[in-house]
Amino acid sequence: MTTVIPPATAYQQITWAALQEQLETAIALAPKERVLQPYFAKYPAVNMVLEHPSSGYFGLENDAIDLTDIEATYTQPSQKKRICFDHFDGIEIPYVNNFFHRVISFDPDLSYPNSLSVYLNELHRVLRPLGQVSLWLPLPSDTDVTQAIAIAESSLYDTINIEKLCVITPNEVHEHSVLIELRKPAKKAAAHQGPSVMIMSKRIS
């Protein structure tokens, strides 16, 4: 008789609405923080960010979509909010180093030439020290989830939380997905150097 060994970590079933609520609580935005969401069009988190006073939302998309209607929807009723939508090539994020406080990323496009390792490294570049990434990846199999977790745990970040999830969205069920929450480490302080002392050799007469 063959013994069936269940997975070490079961997939927790959760609705998309509950997952968003969980993320909003975990993110805990502070005033004037800048939030980046690459590949925002499929699962926009604009409203989640705008609930926090003075926070700024920056959405990037690599698909050829018309951003005009999206911009009008969100910028007209809230002129005082800082909102920016733009296109990007899917690899290089068009912002300077250490610019964002948070990154929210739902189902990013990781097809070639992009990959999870490349994507995490680019997010690391634009994040401020102690900045946080909340990344949700729907994947084809448990093997893919295991590989994604290994990549995340061996990355430049500190791990905050990793959960295997079965997520029920309004349109489909993602049986194998993973929520990965990471934090960029604090910037290391330069080692203190005392005043340099020159030792002169004693002259022997």
Describe the structure.
- With 205 residues, the protein is α/β, with parallel strands linked by helices.
- The protein has a single domain (15-183), classed as Vaccinia Virus protein VP39 (Rossmann fold, 3-Layer(aba) Sandwich).
- Helix content is 23%, strand content 30%.
- It has five helices and eight strands, in the order E-H-E-H-E-H-E-E-H-E-H-E-E.
- An eight-stranded mixed beta sheet has the order 1-7-8-6-5-2-3-4, with helices on both faces.
- Strand 5 (100-106), helix 4 (116-126) and strand 6 (127-138) form a beta-alpha-beta unit.
- The N and C termini lie far apart (95 Å).
- This is Methyltransferase type 11 domain-containing protein.
Short structural summary:
The protein has 205 residues and is of the alpha/beta class. It is 23% helix and 30% strand. It has one domain (15-183): Vaccinia Virus protein VP39 (Rossmann fold, 3-Layer(aba) Sandwich), CATH 3.40.50.
Class of secondary structure makeup: alpha/beta
The share of residues in extended strands comes to: 25-35%
Indicate the CATH architecture: 3-Layer(aba) Sandwich
Count of all domains: 1
Global mean pLDDT: 85
Strand order of the largest sheet: 1-7-8-6-5-2-3-4
CATH homologous superfamily title: Vaccinia Virus protein VP39
Overall spatial form: globular
CATH class, named Alpha Beta
* Pattern of helices and strands: EHEHEHEEHEHEE
Q: Give start-end ranges of low-pLDDT stretches.
A: 1-8, 196-205
Radius of gyration: 22 Å
- Distance from first to last alpha carbon: 95 Å
Mind describing the biggest β-sheet?
8 strands, mixed
- Helix percent reads 10-25%
Number of H- or I-type helical stretches: 5
**CATH domain fold name:** Rossmann fold
Number of strands: 8
